[in-house]
Amino acid sequence: MDELEKNVNEMSPLIWAYVGDSVYELYIREKLVETTKYKPHKLHIETIKYVKASAQANILKRIEEELTEEEKAIVKRGRNTKNHHLPKNADTSEYMYSTAFEGLIGYLYLTKQEKRLKEILDKCMEQ
Fold first, then answer.
1. What is the CATH topology of the domain spanning 7-124?
2. Dihedrals phi, psi of 67, to nearest 5 degrees
3. Closest Cα partner for 74 from 5, 2, 4?
4. H/E segment holding residue 95
């Protein structure tokens, strides 16, 4: 394990999720801008369909079997992390899976695993 990965592993999975939330939303926004001719309000509405907790939880459940053992361990850490934030528009289970998904995205981003990050992000658009 290199120094970067060691430092990232010492972070809370909630930090990974914090970063992953931004990375994922930017990816979705870029894809929608590239592939549609929507105006800003419609872009926002479409983005929400992908970034809401229930959608992220469903994506994670769909791709979970394709994850490596290391990625599954990252997801498990993210899912089991105590978060005192109560979800507004999702049930607790969805919120835990959503946090785990964002944690995985953040972890891959922070450890500069760009190729794998892109593979997983591209799967998110397959529906």
1. Ribonuclease iii, N-terminal Endonuclease Domain; Chain A (1.10.1520)
2. -80, 150
3. 5
4. helix 92-110
> What's the pLDDT tens digit per position in 81-122?
877 666 666 688 888 999 999 999 999 999 999 999 999 999
CB atoms within 10 A of CB 23: 17
CB 107 within 8 A of CB 20: yes
Contact 60, 102 (CB under 8 A): no
Tell me the HSE value of 118 on the side-chain side, using a 13 A CA sphere: 4
The C-alpha atoms of residue 13 and residue 25 are separated, in whole angstroms, by 18
The domain segmentation of the chain, as residue ranges, is: 7-124
Longest dimension (CA), the chain: 45
3-state secondary structure of 81: coil
Contact yes or no for 90/100 (Cβ under 8 A): no
**Taken in order 21, 22, 27, 30, is the CA torsion positive or negative?**
positive
Q: What is the pTM of this model?
A: 0.92
Q: Is 21 a catalytic residue?
A: yes
Dihedral sign of CA atoms 6, 14, 90, 54 in order: negative
